[in-house]
Each structure stands twice: as structure tokens, then as C-alpha cells.
Design goal:
The complex is a heterodimer of chains A (256) and B (227). Chain A has ten helices and ten strands. Chain A has a six-stranded mixed β-sheet, with helices on both faces. In chain A, strands 2-1-4-5 form a four-stranded antiparallel β-sheet, with helices on one face. In chain A, strand 7, helix 7 and strand 8 form a beta-alpha-beta unit. In chain B, 36% of the residues lie in helices and 25% in strands. Chain B is built from seven helices and nine strands; from the N terminus they run βββαββαβαααβαβαβ. In chain B, the strands form two sheets. In chain B, strands 6-7-8-3-9 form a five-stranded parallel β-sheet, sandwiched between helices. Chain B has 227 residues and is α/β, with parallel strands linked by helices. The longest helix of chain B has 16 residues. The radius of gyration of chain B is 18 Å and the shape is globular. The chains are: A alpha/beta (256), B alpha/beta (227).
Chain lengths: 256, 227
């Protein structure tokens, strides 16, 4: 089996300051990888470099495209990359308002992504959008409401529906449960896990919540000061951390 | 089926003066198909540590741990994940689940992961839950609010849902009442009969004697280590 995503030596500087340095890994179809580390450790920089939101100073991000096999998404043309981010890729932002169009109805938010890949039949789009709202547990009678009238948890679920409606193969998530209260988090985790399994998605999740990665991620990467200090199976890194920083991170979690 | 050759384990505690603790040296053992081997030894002797090394959530410094032809020590994470999904089952004392998922789905999940249809997986889950005396009215609820004993039985049902060729059991009968203990022992017997290789930790001596073919005292693996 060939990797879906192969990241090689991604490096990003902000002036003389290291954003992330020499990060490499392979992600296989169906795998979920967590990236943890304290704020400022470079995890979001890395995620944004991979997703094409930031231009890395060095390195390659090879994605196994449906038509042409592995392609470096950093050197591909802007229209190609934009097409990729509308079809095979999805990006779930920490703040739902960054990933949604707040002035457009919930149904419109989901339908817009469908139209971007060529859907034109209004009835089909609306049916599919309604179906997805239900899958993320938003009442179908809210389809015409704007997300501004939704709670934070609902907005986050709407963002997920908008992202997954086109059946992507790779989902980037930046603190998807951050800022939500715990009962809403649990609901979202349950939803994400079901979607990952049923759709065979691969995902990269950036978070600082170790409980979230234990439940969602197969593999884990620990970052500090822009470097990956440890990587491995999620339960191995959490149960038997090897690096001084990972040991500190794991032992610092409050027991509930 | 499960084979350990010259396995050693140390813990390095970087944040406590970089203390290095050697816990095990030169562990060699093997478990054949259809055999159940008990790990024995005093508390702290390293029974659970050894079991976690075999499952791969503890790193092994040297030696090899071969399960169904795959060496856990040298494997990539995704190879270990595949091994755990298909070959190697683990029943711990503690249930760890996504909140809000129904008990039935929790138990059926390992089967869904190996591609069993939703109906067949659910049927098997129902059979196991009934066997382990979990009242049917609880099946649609999340096990996070269940009593300790109920959670443990849900965990056992989940662990035995898929017919793993190799299984690790960490105190599967602890804190169960007599009737449920018998059910668990019969599940272990069934697993042995279909050829599963099993390594278990049992503090309950009667249970150990009834299902285990041999005992290995892990204290001897710590002998080479300076106390």
C-alpha cells in the first residue's frame, strides 16, 4: 500500500525564528494522526504548510492524487491546489467562523462546496445538504437559518458537514474540539470517529488535548520548538513516552 | 504463536534526575496455539509491564517479540495497528470509550473494524452481552455511567467479540461475581479450543488453575537486574 500523504523535510522560518523544521512522515489511507505540543511548538504552522495555507521554505508534501498518482502539492499550480482543497482535502478550523460563510444559510454553506465541484441541480444540492445536516445532528428545519444563529457546537458540526460533503480523502483539523464545552466535545468526537471509520478517511489532527488524541488518533507526533521530538503509536507515546518533553507533557495532565 | 526472545526493558525518567530503571532482562518465552499461559509474581514484579510490551504500548529496548510472524519491536505503527485489529486482542481492567457511544456499538466495534457487517456484528455483540448478564435495557446506553463490574464485563464482551488468534488478558476475572466469573472462564476455554494463544494475569488462583496450562513467574526475568 502506498502512502496517501508523504511529507518530507518540511521547514518554515518566520524571519530567524523556527516555525517548524525538518518534519517528515508518511500517512496511509484510513490512518488518523495526532500532532500535540504546547502553543508555539509549531504544530499549526506545520498543518498550514501541509494544507497549502502557508508556503514552507523547504520540503515536499506528496499527495497521492486520484488521477496522476503522487504529486508535490507545494509546487503544483494554484488552480490545481485549489481544486484539491475543494475535492480530496478538507480543513476544519478551530473557530468555525473561519471555515463558514456566516452570512449564508446552513444549507448554502454545505451546498456551496458541492457547487464548487460542479453540482448544479438545486433539488439534489438541497437534498444532499439536508442529509448532511442530519448526519452531523443539526435539525433539518434549520437548513435555511444562518450559522450566526447557531451555538458554537452546532457551528463546528456545520463546518464538518460543509467539509465532508464532497467525500474528501484527507481531512486536516486544527483543534476541532477547542473552545467547546466537554459534553459538546464528546458528541463531536463520537461523530468524527464514526465518519472516519465509515468513510475510510485519513486525518491529521492538531490539538493540545491528550484525551482527544487517545480516542481519535492511531499515531501521535509530539512537537516542541518546531521540532518533532517523538513519534509513534498513540498509546505507546502516551503510556511509555521516551523523550523528556513528552514525559513532562503526559505527566502534567490532571487526572479526572 | 507468541514468541519472545531475549527481551529487555528499561525506563528512563528524564524529569526525575534521568533515573534509569532496568525492569527486565533476557525474557524468553513462547506460547503455542490453543495454549493459555499465566504470568505470576508479586505486585510490581513486572507482569503488566511485560504484557504491555507484548501489546506494543510499552517500547522494548532489545530483543524480539514475534506474534503471528510479525516482530512488534521492529514494526511500524501502522503494522502494529493492523496486528491489533486482526491478530492480537487485549482485555485490560479498564474500559476506555468515546462518551455517548452505545454499549452495543462499543462491543461490536472490533468486528466492524475487521469488516464484519453491521447486522452480524450487532448479533454477536448481543449474544456476548446477554451471556455476560448485562441487562438488555442498558445496551443502548453508553457504558461510561455503568458500575465498575458492568464496565468490566462490557470490556470483556468487547475483547472477545472478534476471534483473535492471540489474546492478552489482564485480570479478566477480578471483581466479578461467581456466575460471571464462570462465563469469562468459559469464554477463555472457547478461545483456547478454537486455537487462540493466550497470556493472562490472574490473581484469582482458582481461575488460573482452571484455564491455564502453565505458569511463568516474571520475578526470574528481573533477577539479572540489580535491585
Amino acid at each position: 500500500m502506498s502512502p496517501l500523504l508523504s511529507v518530507q523535510n518540511i521547514t518554515k522560518y518566520y524571519g530567524s525564528h523556527i516555525g517548524c523544521k525538518d518534519v517528515s512522515f508518511d500517512l496511509y489511507p484510513g490512518e488518523v494522526m495526532g500532532i500535540v505540543g504546547e502553543s508555539g511548538s509549531g504544530k499549526s504552522t506545520l498543518l498550514n504548510c501541509m494544507a497549502g495555507h502557508l508556503d514552507p521554505d523547504a520540503g515536499e508534501v506528496l499527495f497521492d492524487t486520484r488521477t496522476d498518482g503522487p504529486r508535490d502539492t507545494i509546487t503544483m499550480s494554484e488552480p490545481e491546489r485549489r481544486m484539491l482543497s475543494r475535492t480530496d482535502w478538507a480543513f476544519v478550523h478551530q473557530h468555525a467562523r473561519d471555515g463558514l460563510r456566516m452570512g449564508v444559510s446552513a444549507g448554502g454553506n454545505v451546498g456551496e462546496r458541492l457547487m464548487a465541484v460542479g453540482a448544479r441541480n438545486y433539488g439534489d444540492i438541497r437534498t444532499k445538504a439536508t442529509d448532511w445536516l442530519e448526519r452531523v445532528e443539526i435539525d433539518a428545519d434549520r437548513v435555511d437559518d444562518r450559522p450566526i444563529t447557531f451555538s458554537g457546537g452546532m457551528q463546528q458540526r456545520l463546518q464538518i458537514a460543509r467539509n465532508l460533503v464532497t467525500g474528501p480523502r484527507l481531512v486536516f483539523m486544527d483543534e476541532p474540539t477547542g473552545g467547546l464545552d466537554v459534553s459538546v466535545q464528546a458528541r463531536l468526537l463520537d461523530l468524527l470517529r464514526g465518519l472516519v471509520r465509515d468513510m475510510g478517511l485519513s486525518a491529521i489532527i492538531v490539538t493540545h488535548d491528550l484525551a482527544v488524541v487517545r480516542l481519535l488518533a492511531d499515531r501521535l507526533m509530539v512537537m516542541k520548538d518546531g521540532h518533532v521530538v517523538e513519534a509513534g503509536l498513540t498509546d505507546q507515546v502516551l503510556d511509555d513516552p521516551q523523550h523528556a518533553y513528552s514525559q513532562l507533557l503526559v505527566s502534567s495532565v490532571l487526572q479526572v | 504463536m507468541i514468541e519472545l526472545n531475549n527481551v529487555s526493558k528499561t525506563f528512563t525518567l528524564h524529569n526525575q534526575g534521568s533515573a534509569v530503571i532496568e525492569v527486565m532482562t533476557n525474557v524468553s518465552m513462547s506460547v503455542a496455539k490453543g495454549e493459555c499461559v499465566a504470568l505470576t509474581g508479586a505486585s510490581g514484579a513486572g507482569k503488566s509491564t511485560l504484557m504491555r510490551m507484548i501489546y506494543g504500548n510499552y517500547l522494548t529496548q532489545s530483543g524480539e517479540i514475534i506474534i503471528g510472524g510479525t516482530d512488534i519491536v521492529q514494526s511500524e505503527p501502522r503494522e502494529v495497528i493492523t496486528l491489533r485489529r486482526e491478530i492480537l486482542g487485549y482485555v485490560s481492567q479498564f474500559l476506555r470509550v468515546v462518551p455517548r457511544v452505545s454499549t452495543l456499538d462499543v462491543v461490536a466495534e472490533p468486528l466492524r473494524a475487521v469488516g464484519v457487517s453491521a447486522e452480524a456484528a450487532q448479533a454477536r455483540a448481543e449474544e456476548l452481552l446477554a451471556k455476560l448478564n448485562i441487562p438488555q435495557r442498558l445496551w443502548s446506553l453508553s457504558p461510561t455511567t455503568f458500575s465498575g463490574g458492568e464496565q468490566q464485563r462490557v470490556n470483556i464482551a468487547r475483547g472477545f467479540a472478534h476471534t483473535y488468534p492471540a489474546m492478552l488478558l489482564d485480570e479478566p476475572t477480578a471483581s466479578l461475581d461467581a456466575a460471571n466469573r464462570e462465563v469469562v472462564l468459559s469464554l477463555i476455554e472457547d478461545a483456547k479450543e478454537r486455537g487462540a494463544a493466550i497470556i493472562g494475569i490472574f490473581h484469582d488462583e482458582a481461575a488460573r488453575d482452571s484455564v491455564c496450562d502453565r505458569e511463568i513467574n516474571v520475578a526470574r526475568f528481573a533477577q539479572g537486574v540489580a535491585a
